[in-house]
Design goal:
By secondary structure, this protein is an alpha+beta fold. It has two domains: 98 residues, Immunoglobulin-like, CATH 2.60.40.4070; 109 residues, no CATH class. The chain contains six helices and eleven strands. The termini are far apart.
Length: 239
């Protein structure tokens, strides 16, 4: 899912597709509406007409910052685009998430690098870094992860790597179907060395994630009690 910092304008590219093929909408047939986190139509953004240049197969729209504020940790906006082709009505929905700014410097390329996949096999649209951040933050509790990300130390690097690993782990189930054995494009071709046990990948990444988390997680070491000294009674005085 697309993710944006709350309180700013959000510009979206809308592709006009029918059955996976790009089409040119009928003249004056395009409009859009936006629903908030509760699914309620935003009155100022209901049935907004879009004027297109003849022959185009996509367009861009901007949702104003005033409609992208939030009161929850995360909020979604759903943009419903309606258009006609040869008189027939079509709808498409594009959703995006609003959140507070998170001090991450990783991206989809970081996750692909961990998994050894290319953009064709794992596009950015299929990688949800913010969901990985939220999940890891919830697992660690308190402010461990946000504090590490803003520490300005090596902890920030470890925290970013941990979030990228978390996002990579979320892709493990689909990797055997995504990863191509070979590919040819023009005069260029490559063969990927076959991974014998895909099931071990998640285990390996999880182990690496634990190592990275240990680099920035603050823990209090319990000191075991070796002996106890109690009050003593003098056998002569009784005191």
């Amino acid at each position: 899912m697309l993710n944006f910092a709350a309180g700013q304008d959000v510009s979206l590219v809308i592709p006009f597709k029918v059955d996976g093929e790009y089409v040119t909408p009928d003249e004056d047939s395009v409009s859009y509406s936006v629903r908030d986190a509760q699914g309620v139509l935003i009155s100022a953004l209901t049935n907004v007409s879009v004027t297109l240049t003849p022959g185009v197969t996509d367009t861009s729209i901007t949702i104003p910052a005033t409609n992208n504020t939030k009161t929850l940790d995360f909020e979604t906006r759903s943009v419903i685009v309606t258009f006609k082709v040869s008189g027939q009505t079509h709808n498409l929905t594009l959703a995006y998430r609003l959140s507070d700014w998170v001090n991450l410097f990783i991206n989809g390329g970081t996750v692909r690098g961990i998994l050894g996949l290319n953009e064709f096999e794992l596009p950015d649209a299929d990688i949800d870094i913010m969901a990985a951040y939220a999940s890891l933050n919830d697992e660690l509790g308190d402010t461990t992860l946000p504090d590490a990300l803003t520490s300005g130390t090596i902890k920030a690097q470890a925290a970013n790597r941990a979030v990228a690993l978390k996002a990579a782990i979320e892709q493990c189930t689909s990797i055997p179907m995504r990863a191509m054995r070979s590919e040819r494009s023009g005069d260029t071709a490559y063969d990927r060395y076959p991974r014998r046990d895909w099931t071990s990948l998640e285990r390996d990444l999880s182990a690496e994630l634990e190592l990275e988390v240990d680099k920035f997680r603050v823990t209090t070491k319990d000191i075991p009690t070796t002996f106890l000294v109690g009050a003593r009674t003098d056998v002569i005085t009784g005191a």
